[in-house]
UniProtKB/TrEMBL annotation, chain A:
Membrane-spanning intervals of the chain: none
InterPro entries, sorted: PDH/Transketolase (IPR051157), THDP-binding (IPR029061), Transketo_C/PFOR_II (IPR009014), Transketolase-like_Pyr-bd (IPR005475), Transketolase_C (IPR033248)
Alphabetical list of Pfam families matching this protein: Transket_pyr, Transketolase_C
Residue ranges constituting the Transketolase-like pyrimidine-binding domain according to the UniProt record: 28-191
Protein name: Transketolase
PANTHER family linked: PYRUVATE DEHYDROGENASE E1 COMPONENT, TRANSKETOLASE-LIKE PYRIMIDINE-BINDING DOMAIN-CONTAINING PROTEIN
UniProtKB/TrEMBL annotation, chain B:
Classification of source organism: Bacteria, Bacillati, Actinomycetota, Actinomycetes, Kitasatosporales
InterPro entries: Peptidase_S8_His-AS, THDP-binding, Transketolase_N
Sequence similarity: Belongs to the transketolase family.
Every Transketolase N-terminal domain range: 4-250
Top-rank taxon: Bacteria
SUPFAM superfamilies given in the database record: Thiamin diphosphate-binding fold (THDP-binding)
Protein name: Transketolase
Keywords: Thiamine pyrophosphate
Cofactor (UniProt): thiamine diphosphate
CDD domains per UniProt: TPP_TK (cd02012)
Gene3D superfamilies the record matches: 3.40.50.970
Cell inner membrane as UniProt keyword: no
Length: 336, 268
């Protein structure tokens, strides 16, 4: 059962003097919050095993406090997935740590056959997703990971919108009986959530109500850009609904169909190829059940060999609030 | 034991008569190893396949499924009559093992996965304090997959002495000799250099196989690899040492010839 905000640390009433503020708690990279949360969970759940592939830092964080719940397989992603599947088969809960591109592409077959194929409770936690690796270059970008992994049966695919949602997602999936792919970025991103809320796997969160058009976004910058676009649209008299589609699989079909039926169209936003990701998943739902106009915003069909940071790469890809607002305004103005 | 191994070979040939045939050569080369493992070595409860204290077996060379199904039937995991359904629509006996078949821990067939899986199991058993061991049977051609060496390096480093790899060293792969394709020798030295204890044995000498497996773990603090020197198609003169035996569909006439050869070889 997914946990609700009421059960989460930081959710209870007024903060004590010694308690860190919301910003102090979450104003760091999502992957740091993940690590902290996993360590907290692992202290009380001996089934949790942190499986490292030389990510850096886990060897001290886990290796020093919970050495019996830590194993480093080195720079070997195929083996990482196979070993994790084997651990899970013996009743343990392995968290396989790697980069998103390495999980989805390099070790794809092991994820497909050994993890997803066996429906084992392996949690693949992948950082550097989308264009978040920035100046590291296209070898470290992962803009095809959702397209690949959302096709695999049994695999739950979650993309937190910020560090807060990362903690909620890690806690909510702790007892998931099947495999999980948790898609994280690299550096800190703007906080979308300023207070506790209820996170449920597979249920999109409406961040803003609207009736003229719907913006469906996944991932840190896409979601915060969608909100910014909605504010711009509101100033122009356009009422835009904003959905944070944090779970790509299973997709919240009801939320998508409601958007298709109740608003003038859907704009999807993702830090992922236009092909195969969130936009494609939304199209698959509406074309069969509630045809509507869909405009997909994402990374175009090309490799990014520019040296730039994440924000600049997104801008180069045409992923920004102005593009989102323009597309949404067109859909809102079109005859229904 | 020799009777059981003989029966495994006969059952493999029978499965080879089904519509799609089977991987005869690699099943026959592994027949003696599988017979000894399933009848003497592995601690299993056929009536309770998920028994917590069992040994785990992973058929990394999943294409030798027919030989695995034969020993699973002998041990009572499945009924012997089910073997006739091999490869047929609706059967549980696929060309490569399915996990839903009792006794199969993981589906295998894509080469280079089994040693990682068995390593994870060995780690998990160690972590949870269970007495079981993890065995993986690999083909020799399979050793050309890089992931095998990721797993070997890792298992050696972590000193998984409850892990045993068995290599069915029959020397042939689809295109011919392993040494002509991409050579594997000196194979024992390669494993040793990855931190493994190495045992080399005639993979068709039932007594020698028993002795090797009885001595496991070979070395405390190290995983063991058993290099079983075998002959592809072993036991059936028609197929012995022939690369064409890799995958065969046996017509009734071919089956009779093969069976006659098998029985004659045994009578000698």
């Amino acid at each position: 059962m997914p946990e609700t905000a009421a059960q989460l640390p930081g959710a209870a009433g007024a903060a004590q003097a010694a308690e860190p503020t919301w910003q102090e708690r979450y104003g760091v990279a999502a992957r740091e919050v993940y690590r902290r949360t996993l360590l907290e969970l692992a202290r009380t759940d001996p089934r949790i095993i942190c499986v490292d592939s030389d990510m850096g830092g886990l060897e001290t964080l886990f290796g020093e406090e919970l050495p019996s719940q830590y194993v480093n397989v080195g720079i070997a992603e195929a083996n990482l997935m196979g070993v994790s599947a084997g651990l899970a088969a013996t009743g343990l809960l392995p968290y396989a740590n790697t980069l998103s591109g390495f999980a989805a592409a390099r070790a794809c077959e092991q994820v497909k056959i050994d993890v997803a194929g066996n429906n084992l409770p392996v949690r693949i936690v992948a950082t550097h997703a989308g264009l978040s690796a920035g100046h590291y270059g296209p070898t470290h970008h992962a803009v095809e990971d959702l397209a690949i992994l959302r096709t695999l049966p049994n695999l739950t695919v979650v993309v937190p919108a910020d560090a807060v949602e990362t903690e909620y997602a890690v806690r909510a999936t702790a007892d998931l009986p099947g495999p999980l792919f948790l898609r994280l970025g690299r550096a800190a991103t703007p906080l979308v959530h300023e207070e506790p809320y209820e996170f449920t796997v597979g249920k999109a969160r409406e961040l803003r109500a609207g009736t003229d058009v719907t913006i469906v976004a996944t991932g840190p910058y896409p979601v915060s850009m969608a909100l910014e676009a909605a504010r711009e649209l509101a100033a122009r008299g356009v009422s835009a609904r904003v959905l944070n589609m944090h779970t790509i699989k299973p997709l919240d079909r009801e939320a998508v169909l409601a958007a298709a039926r109740e608003t003038g169209g859907i704009v999807t936003v993702e830090d992922h190829l236009v092909a195969g990701g969130l936009g494609a998943a939304v199209c698959e739902v509406v074309t069969q059940e509630a045809p509507c106009r869909v405009h997909r915003i994402g990374v175009p069909d090309r490799f990014f060999d520019h040296v730039a940071d994440e924000r600049q790469l997104l801008e180069l890809a045409g992923i920004n609030p102005a593009e989102i607002a323009a597309a949404a305004a067109r859909l809102a103005a079109a005859p229904r | 034991m020799a009777d059981l191994a003989h029966e495994v070979r006969e059952l493999v040939l029978r499965m080879g008569t089904t519509a799609h045939g089977t991987h005869v050569g690699g099943s026959l080369s592994a027949a003696d190893v599988l017979t000894v493992l399933y009848h003497e070595v592995l601690r299993l409860r056929p009536e309770q396949p998920d028994w917590a204290d069992r040994d785990w077996f992973v058929l990394s060379k999943g294409h030798a499924s027919a030989a695995l199904y034969a020993v699973l039937a002998q041990r009572g995991f499945i009924d012997r009559t089910e073997l006739a359904t091999y490869g047929a629509p609706g059967s549980r006996l696929a060309g490569h093992p399915l996990r839903r078949l009792p006794g199969v821990e993981f589906p295998t067939g894509s080469l280079g996965h089994g040693l990682s899986l068995a390593s994870g199991v060995a780690l998990g058993l160690r972590r949870t304090g269970r007495p079981g061991r993890a065995f993986a049977l690999l083909g020799d051609g399979e050793l050309q997959e890089g992931s095998v060496w990721e797993a070997a390096m890792n298992a050696g480093h972590h000193g998984l002495d409850n892990l045993v790899a068995v290599v069915d060293r029959n020397g042939l792969q689809i295109s011919g000799s392993t040494e002509e394709c991409v050579s594997l020798e000196p194979l024992g030295d390669r494993w040793r250099s990855f931190g493994w204890a190495v045992a080399e044995v005639d993979g068709h000498d039932l007594g020698a196989l028993r002795e090797v497996f009885a001595a496991l773990p070979d070395s405390a603090g190290r995983p063991t690899v058993v290099l079983a020197r075998t002959v592809k198609g072993r036991g059936v003169p028609l197929f012995e040492g022939k690369k064409k035996s890799h995958s065969v569909q046996l017509t009734p006439r071919l089956f009779q010839r093969a069976l006659t050869g098998l029985n004659a070889r045994r009578a000698r």
